[in-house]
Design a protein that fits this description.
With 620 residues, the protein is α/β, with parallel strands linked by helices. The chain is built from 20 helices and 23 strands.
């Protein structure tokens, strides 16, 4: 849905937008709107949400950290913020807005169990002139799930205490699926309905109710912790069980905007165990591989991955505006702009002035984390590979091999390199497996790789397959790593007592969600919104129950949609069905073996190359 600035301005707001004449040329002038409030509400106090004991530098640092931790660039507008505000604020006011937005994020980041209130957002403004700007920032963050999400009690007591006479109208939203996506969606919807409850009560309606339909007799989706029949109470805290993780079980780092950071650590306070990258590889003879040689081969494998990354499809870039980074770092606003705010961003663009930058990365590469912005890091089974740059190596393969510690063939020069271009053009849909095999083959003409080196390379290839749950021959060369540079950072972790604690927490706190188990959905019948905007959607279940709702959110697995287990009437549009048909997903089988005497379990991973299931180095 395309949002307009009016969607974020409350009618009761006391601030107003001045009309300022902005020169476009020597002959014409155009009216443009800028944020410049003339009043101050008795309910709002500027700086009331800014701790007086903090220096501005420390306050700015905490805001930057909060934005980074909640997956926003603290120094630039999100592309959607840019679209929303470009016609209403000036370049100078971008910095003011970002300081306010970062301060609001700071409030939730530091106390994620307490929802940020509207007056607190206003208190993040240094000047009462910008109360309206704080409200736009607050609503945008709230509606896009950057604040007040998860297991936080966002109940609007004024709305819930209203007495409804008779049978007041109440809309229904049905969420299909009680996995992490469905539960997160339902929880977010309930929180939004509570915080925007007055928009319904003003029309004589009760806030909508949310119903979750789940086909299985349990929640969690592919998160499933199977409890042992015999529990050893001495091994774990009293509130934990000995379980075997039958589905997803690794949290791939809490940092760089992972919402589980807020959910697991900030709200549910679950016990977790960080995993260490200290695995030892054993060769086929049972002896451990020399660590130095292991590191050398891993660097060579990463080098080939990096060169393959040069053929990654380029993601579309979006326009945005960067604020004054130095002022934001110092926690300061620009000097007084009351006398002449200047032209809006849109007006400057119309005049041909350079204001915006193209930046498809949610983080600012030169100010946040150079290692993060210029490299994709994915940690796989306790080991990691790194993609640096995404445009291929600037040094030749011979130079790279020498820096790794390999000896190149005597007859070669330092200019010798490898070329993956031909293999990338050999077919319409080149695969990563083809590129990697060609890269290894060409590297063998540059350095003398031993039989053990090739087994190590095979192990890394299989480890990459484990990470993607499919053979590298099924991975697109252009699209297999589109998340490069956006991965969550930090140590891998496991939830002590079972990952199921996370979906259970989402379902139970702050109040129990309305979840209907054993309600496998078979069909969804909906009317054309253009001809019948108020007609309900009819959801039919395999057990015979029928639900009517104004809106339905489908979070069913891709496999369910591929097999057309849910019939849509009228059918889904072609652009959706074709996407469902093209998308692929991996298959990873887990085998848990429990020993009754020790009450422990070992885990094997079944891959196409089964020789790697026990992490041994056998031939391909």
């Amino acid at each position: 849905m395309q949002l307009d600035i009016n969607d974020f301005i409350r009618p009761s707001s006391i601030s107003e937008i001045d009309e300022v004449a902005t020169p476009q040329s020597s002959a014409t002038k155009t009216k443009t709107s800028v944020w410049h409030s003339k009043g101050a509400s008795k309910d709002y106090r500027s700086r009331s949400a800014i701790p007086q004991h903090l220096t501005w530098v420390e306050f700015g640092r905490q805001g930057i950290l909060a934005a980074y931790s909640l997956r926003l660039n603290p120094f630039a507008l999100h592309p959607e913020e840019y679209k929303l505000l470009r016609a209403h604020i000036t370049k100078t006011q971008v910095t003011i807005y970002l300081n306010i937005r970062n301060a609001i994020l700071r409030l939730f980041h530091r106390t994620p169990l307490i929802p940020v209130q509207r007056h607190e957002a206003a208190g993040c403004a240094r000047d009462s002139r910008y109360f309206d700007l704080s409200q736009v920032a607050y609503d945008w963050l709230l509606r896009n799930g950057f604040i007040n999400f998860g297991c936080v009690d966002a109940t609007d007591t004024q709305t819930t205490n209203i007495h409804f006479r008779g049978r007041a109208k109440r809309k229904t939203v049905v969420v299909i699926g009680a996995g992490m996506s469905g539960l997160g969606c339902a929880r977010q919807l309930e929180a939004l309905f509570a915080q925007y409850g007055e928009q319904f009560t003003e029309n004589g309606e009760r806030p909508p109710k949310v119903i979750v339909l789940e086909g299985r007799p349990r929640l969690g989706g592919r998160v499933y912790s199977h409890a042992f029949a015999t529990q050893d109470r001495d091994q774990l805290p009293s509130n934990c069980r000995n379980t075997a993780e039958m589905g997803a079980h690794i949290i791939t780092g809490f940092d760089h905007g992972n919402p589980l950071n807020i959910l697991v650590r900030g709200q549910l306070a679950l016990n977790y165990h960080p995993l260490k990258d200290d695995s030892v590889l054993y060769d086929v003879d049972g002896n451990p591989v020399d660590k130095k040689r292991d590191v050398m081969v891993q660097e060579l494998y990463n080098d080939i991955l990096d060169r393959a990354a040069a053929f990654r499809a380029k993601l579309p870039t979006e326009q945005t505006v960067v604020g004054d980074k130095d002022l934001i770092r110092l926690g300061e606003d620009p000097r007084d702009t009351q006398s002449d705010p200047g032209p809006t961003i849109a007006a400057q663009e119309a005049a041909g002035e350079s204001v915006t930058v193209a930046d498809g990365n949610p983080l600012d590469s030169d100010t946040i984390s150079p290692a993060l912005a210029f490299s994709g890091v994915e940690k796989v089974a306790g080991r990691q590979y790194q993609l640096a740059g995404g445009t291929g190596k600037k040094v030749t393969a011979a130079e790279a091999a020498t820096s790794m510690g390999f000896e190149t063939h005597a007859e070669l020069t330092s200019n010798q390199s490898i070329d993956l271009g031909p293999v990338s053009r050999a077919s319409e849909y080149p695969t990563l497996g083809e590129a990697m095999d060609e890269g290894i083959r060409q590297y063998q003409t540059i350095v003398g790789l031993t039989a053990q080196d090739l087994r190590l390379l095979n192990w890394h290839q299989a480890n990459l397959e484990y990470a993607n749950a499919t053979s590298v021959d099924n991975l697109s060369l252009s699209g297999w790593d589109q998340d490069g540079g956006n991965e969550f950072e930090g140590a891998h972790s496991q939830i002590i007592g079972g990952y199921m604690k996370v979906p259970r927490g989402l379902a139970k706190f702050p109040s129990q969600l309305d979840i209907r188990f054993k309600h496998a959905v078979t069909s969804i019948e909906y009317s054309n919104p253009n001809t019948s905007p108020n007609a309900p959607v009819v959801v039919k279940c395999a057990n015979g129950e029928v639900f009517q709702a104004e809106h339905v959110v489908v979070t069913a697995p891709l496999g369910v949609l591929k097999k057309e287990k849910i019939k849509f009437s009228p059918p889904l549009p072609e652009w959706k069905t074709s996407c469902i048909g093209r998308m692929g997903y991996g298959l990873l089988n887990k085998v848990c073996r429990c020993t009754e005497q020790t009450n422990t379990h070992s885990l094997k991973t079944t891959l196409n190359r089964s020789s790697y299931a026990t992490i041994s180095l056998s031939g391909k």
